[in-house]
Design a protein that fits this description.
The protein is α+β, with helices and mostly antiparallel strands. The chain has helices at residues 51-66, 76-84; strands at 3-8, 13-18, 21-31, 34-42, 70-73. It starts with a strand and ends in a 9-residue tail after the last helix.
């Protein structure tokens, strides 16, 4: 089983593919100096398998690696995930 997280900038979302199949995504909008997370969705076939958490971590790791952006977690899932992982709170605007 392989998981891959990628930034699909054309569609404005980070995607998690499990064995090549889209299992979930986190939509965002880019603004000057910010990335605003607006919605996260996991396919019902993948619920309860840690897809959402892996997606949140991967997306935020990508933002951190890119540098120069702060996160605005308007999406309740991303906001809740960050609140449970204090090592990512430094990214929040």
């Amino acid at each position: 089983m392989s998981r891959e997280i990628s930034d699909n900038a054309q569609q404005g979302r980070f995607e998690l593919h499990e064995d090549g199949i889209l299992a979930g995504f986190a939509e965002y909008e880019r603004k000057p100096g910010q990335i605003v997370f607006t919605h996260t969705e996991v396919d019902s076939a993948y619920e309860g398998q840690g897809i959402g958490s892996a997606l949140a971590r991967g997306a935020l790791d990508h933002v951190r690696a890119e540098g120069g952006l702060s996160v605005v977690p308007n999406c309740p899932f991303i906001k809740g995930w960050i609140s449970k992982h204090p090592d990512y709170q430094d990214l929040v605007a």
